[in-house]
């Protein structure tokens, strides 16, 4: 991969990122059609809302005849199978593209198989770049196809003295809202749902419609429609996940998923598998201290966002019952990969090393 290839793939990832959460059960891919001699952009596209048509098909259609002799940059390996849309590989060959640079291979056997060989046998130069930002963009899809569960991000807001702060405000609120808008579902524990009785909507002006599926994880008491999230008409979708024997009283519009129990709670691994079966790629969890600890101990968090307010709370529940929450995160094998300094809080992201 040349430095130019790297720059175009980086640009493709930046272009696609704000569209995360809009492509349903299809990956949020970007495709750029580039004139290789002038190094100029001819056309670009992200997979359409709901997941179809795919980015490559839209970009090639928009490039028209100019696609002949071009380089196509695709953040994810183009599909080569007939699904709900025709194969992108055929469109690439028909358009006369000369070179294809792929950010990350698709582990989906339907998409992968012999797709790249098919391009090569049509005389197209193919570069499989193993581009880390493309892999990060498609982390949800890659997880779903390899482990059958979504990529899990947890976000927790704590005070400077490591106590639970809720609800989030200021910069923390904005960061959380952005994460919500880019997720396919938000999950909270029943205790948190009961405590704040909130709607979990995206509060960024103009982006309320990006509120994803809201999922409430029931505890031993079960769930009933007195909770706003379950019983109140909001225009947003809700699902409840409960252990098979606990009572759930919800309107028909609320999807109820039953999973096996473990130590009196829904088995968290089963919870993620159930969400994976629904095709959810990126799950945001906003846990309280108990759920955060249970998820970390089960090794089920891929990315932990810790928002630390610059103010001390002085009272309120501690973020972790045993020592500092950062210690729990480290014990789960996550390492700090990103640090942002905002006016009122710092934001740290911890991820599983590759
Ligand atoms: N600052 C923040 O970012 C933030 C975010 C969320 C919540 N909070 C605060 O945290 C407090 C609630 O904390 P919490 O620890 O009680 O509640 P939590 O973390 O929301 O989770 C515990 C809830 O999930 C249920 N649950 C289901 N399966 C579970 C499992 N496998 N493991 C653990 N719990 C499971 C529990 O049921 P049972 O009741 O049957 O145990 C309980 O209702 C509230 O005061 C809220 O304001 C703060």
Would you give an account of this structure?
The protein has 12 helices and 16 strands. The strands form 3 sheets. Strands 10-9-8-7-13-6-14-16-15 form a 9-stranded mixed sheet, sandwiched between helices. The chain has a 5-stranded mixed sheet with strand order 2-1-3-4-5. The chain has 354 residues and is α/β, with parallel strands linked by helices. The protein starts with a helix and ends with a strand. The protein has 2 domains: 3-145, 3-Layer(aba) Sandwich (Cytidine Deaminase, domain 2); 148-351, Dihydrofolate Reductase, subunit A. The protein is globular and about 65 Å long. The chain is 29% helix and 25% strand. Helix 8 (190-196) links the parallel strand 7 and strand 8. Helix 3 (88-95) packs parallel to helix 4. NADP nicotinamide-adenine-dinucleotide phosphate (NAP) binds next to strand 6, strand 7, helix 8, strand 12 and helix 11. Residues 156-157, 164-166, 188-192, 195-196, 217, 219-221, 265-266, 268, 286-291, 294 line the site of NADP nicotinamide-adenine-dinucleotide phosphate.
The CATH topology name of the largest domain reads: Dihydrofolate Reductase, subunit A
* H/E element sequence: HEEHEHEHEHHEHEHEHEEEEHEHEHEE
Query: Which molecules other than protein and nucleic acid are bound?
Result: NADP nicotinamide-adenine-dinucleotide phosphate
Low-confidence stretches: none
**Based on helices, strands and strand pairing, what is the structural class?**
alpha/beta
Helicity range = 25-40%
Q: Distance N terminus to C terminus?
A: 21 Å
């Amino acid at each position: 991969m040349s430095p130019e290839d790297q720059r175009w793939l980086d640009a493709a990832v930046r272009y696609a990122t704000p569209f995360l959460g809009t492509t349903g059960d299809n990956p949020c891919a970007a495709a750029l059609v580039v004139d290789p001699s002038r190094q100029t952009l001819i056309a670009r596209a992200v997979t359409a809302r709901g997941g179809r048509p795919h980015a490559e098909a839209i970009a090639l259609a928009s490039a028209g005849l100019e696609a002949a002799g071009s380089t196509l940059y695709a953040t994810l390996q183009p599909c080569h199978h007939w699904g709900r849309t025709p194969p992108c590989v055929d469109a690439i060959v028909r358009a006369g593209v000369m070179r294809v640079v792929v950010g990350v291979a698709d582990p989906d056997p339907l998409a992968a198989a012999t797709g790249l060989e098919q391009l090569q046998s049509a005389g197209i130069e193919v570069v499989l770049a193993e581009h880390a930002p493309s892999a990060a963009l498609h982390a949800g899809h890659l997880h779903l196809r390899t482990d059958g569960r979504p990529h899990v991000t947890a976000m927790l807001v704590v005070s400077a003295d490591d106590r639970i702060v809720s609800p989030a405000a200021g910069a923390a609120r904005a960061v959380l809202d952005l994460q919500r808008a880019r997720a396919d579902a938000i999950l909270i524990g029943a205790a948190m749902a009961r405590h704040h009785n909130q709607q979990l909507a995206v509060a960024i002006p103009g982006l309320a419609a990006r509120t994803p599926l809201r999922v409430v994880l029931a505890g031993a008491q079960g769930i009933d429609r007195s909770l706003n999230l379950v019983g109140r008409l909001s225009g947003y979708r809700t699902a409840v996940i409960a252990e098979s024997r606990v009572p759930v009283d919800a309107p028909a519009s609320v999807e109820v998923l039953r999973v096996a129990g473990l130590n009196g709670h829904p088995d968290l691994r089963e919870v993620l598998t159930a969400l994976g079966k629904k095709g959810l790629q990126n799950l945001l969890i906003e846990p309280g201290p108990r759920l955060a600890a249970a998820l970390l101990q089960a090794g089920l968090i891929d990315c932990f966002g810790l928002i630390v307010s610059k103010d001390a709370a002085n009272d309120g529940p501690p973020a972790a019952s045993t020592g500092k929450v950062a210690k729990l995160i480290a014990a789960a094998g996550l390492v700090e990969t990103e640090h942002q300094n905002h006016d009122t809080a710092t934001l740290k992201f911890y991820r599983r090393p590759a």
